[in-house]
């Protein structure tokens, strides 16, 4: 199996029609197991001793390996073999323009490497050189030169270049505007993504589908650099033709203020249009708008109705939202059923919430081991609350063997995501050995209203540990925590009030 991955890696390098930062992540994730990925690296290490191609491939694999820190030798290896391996020339330029892989950031130097690769006909280097001319990176901004290099790469099948060239012809950037040519390049760029069952549909339907696919590329930074304004432009073109997926995608942009000024009213209008055509994601998000009163008057019953419409189509987030509604209404049996359905679809928040129900024995028999399994599934997807819950399990030994190091690592991950409880607990872990670090973490959590962190930071100010002593600030923090019913803070406030009376 690992030899198949090596073949894919070498084909990607030799073909030069893909962007390596994206494709190497895909290679690793498709390796099916850490063992397969390790075997791939071992094989490359053996052949790298004699073949520059394999040495470059190995350097890239190590650099993009998600399980290890980025190594600093990528540029050194690529620079060494830049005259022998086309992919090395490109990657040396990439390292320079990004300031990664052991190279100092130097866009002009990066352009020199790209130009060498482009002159040799390497498509991805031609594309990146076009991007440099489009945005004036390391060279003077020149739309005509950008279009010229996009054209060279596009004719070799580079999807990002095809999308970029379509934009050039559509907007007249560096070329004479020509909508027919623009549509032809858009068709080529999205040809492999079009559902074969829909290729027999009307030309208008296929065109709007291509706009949406191209918009997704720009939104996600797939094949091209992320550009939310261009994504919005493409979604708008398709939405005007009544395409529900485009209406939904554009609504999300207005909802979140991505690529466009945030406008809750416009988001609701677009969600309504898409929901009326049966788009499950739009029905779900419109339900959220009604639940929160954003862009519409708050209406919980309408929110639930919309969630149910989406649930009937199997929409995972709608199942999660409806489960939350059922749980708040006391229907734990239905909440568990819906959480389980969403969790089985890989919905991280549903996995986490279902884990909480197992941990507390709500709606299901109490099962701490099952709770830990569910937390782990969600934590692996980056869900902050799940990471915090799992850290608490490792810290206390509930459902799993106690492991302080794992608990600390998970608290750090959740804290870095801004989780206030994780920040507070991590502060407690640091309190004995690093009072300054503890105070910083308490402050982060306290600023989010975390009562224990407010109380603990108050103690820091009262005692002068980790911060300059400031009794007035300590009192203020104790009172904030006490106003939330924090028992320790209440006792401290009462004690301080008693001292004040005795002083008088």
What would a concise description of this structure say?
With 504 residues, this protein is mainly α.
What would you say this structure looks like, in words?
- With 504 residues, the chain is an all-alpha fold.
- It is 71% helix and 0% strand.
Q: How many whole angstroms does the radius of gyration measure?
A: 28 Å
Using the alpha-carbon principal axes, give the shape. Answer: globular
Fraction of helical residues: over 70%
Number of strands: 0
Q: What distance lies between the first and last C-alpha atoms, to the nearest angstrom?
A: 81 Å
Question: What can be said about the biggest beta sheet?
Answer: none
Count of runs of 4 or more consecutive helical residues: 28
> Uncertain segments of ≥5 residues (pLDDT<50)?
195-200
């Amino acid at each position: 199996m690992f030899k198949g991955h090596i073949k894919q890696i070498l084909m990607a390098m030799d073909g030069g029609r893909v962007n390596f930062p994206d494709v190497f992540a895909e290679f690793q994730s498709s390796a099916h197991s850490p063992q397969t990925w390790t075997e791939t690296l071992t094989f490359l290490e053996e052949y790298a001793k004699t073949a520059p191609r394999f040495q470059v491939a190995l350097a890239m694999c190590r650099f993009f390996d998600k399980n290890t820190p980025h190594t600093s030798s990528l540029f050194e290896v690529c620079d060494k073999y830049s005259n022998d391996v086309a992919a090395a020339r490109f990657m040396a330029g990439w390292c320079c323009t990004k300031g990664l892989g052991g190279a100092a950031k130097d866009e002009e130097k990066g352009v020199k490497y790209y130009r060498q690769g482009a002159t040799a006909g390497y498509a991805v280097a031609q594309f990146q050189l076009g991007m440099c001319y489009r945005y004036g990176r390391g060279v003077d901004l020149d739309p005509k030169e950008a279009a010229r290099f996009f054209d060279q790469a596009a004719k070799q099948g580079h999807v990002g270049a095809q999308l970029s060239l379509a934009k050039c012809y559509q907007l007249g950037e560096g070329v004479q505007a020509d909508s027919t040519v623009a549509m032809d390049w858009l068709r080529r760029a999205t040809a492999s993504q079009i559902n074969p069952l829909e290729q027999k549909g009307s030309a208008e339907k296929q065109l709007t589908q291509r706009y949406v696919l191209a918009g997704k590329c720009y939104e996600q930074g797939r094949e091209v650099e992320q550009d939310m304004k261009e994504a919005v432009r493409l979604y708008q073109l398709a939405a005007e033709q009544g395409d529900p997926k485009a209406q939904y995608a554009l609504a999300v942009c207005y909802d979140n203020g991505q690529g466009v000024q945030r406008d809750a009213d416009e988001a609701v209008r677009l969600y309504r249009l898409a929901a009326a055509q049966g788009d499950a994601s739009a029905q779900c998000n419109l339900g959220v708008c009604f639940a929160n009163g954003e862009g519409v008057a708050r209406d919980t019953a309408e929110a639930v109705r919309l969630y149910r419409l989406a649930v009937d189509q199997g929409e995972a987030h709608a199942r999660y939202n409806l489960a939350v509604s059922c749980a708040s209404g006391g229907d734990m049996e239905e909440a568990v059923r819906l959480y389980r359905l969403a969790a089985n679809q890989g919905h991280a928040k549903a996995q986490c919430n279902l884990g909480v129900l197992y941990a507390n024995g709500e709606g299901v028999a109490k099962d701490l081991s099952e709770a830990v399994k569910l937390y782990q599934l969600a934590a692996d997807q980056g869900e902050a609350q799940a990471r915090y819950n799992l850290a608490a399990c490792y810290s206390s030994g509930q459902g799993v063997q106690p492991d302080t190091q794992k608990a600390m690592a998970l608290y750090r991950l959740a804290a870095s995501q801004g989780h206030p409880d994780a920040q507070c607990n991590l502060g407690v872990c640091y309190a004995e050995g690093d009072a300054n670090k503890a105070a910083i973490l308490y402050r982060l959590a306290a600023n989010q209203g975390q009562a224990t962190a407010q109380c603990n930071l108050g103690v820091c100010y009262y005692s002068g540990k980790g911060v300059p002593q400031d009794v007035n600030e300590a009192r203020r923090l104790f009172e904030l925590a006490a106003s939330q019913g924090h028992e320790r803070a209440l006792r401290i406030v009462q004690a301080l009030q008693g001292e004040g009376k005795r002083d008088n």
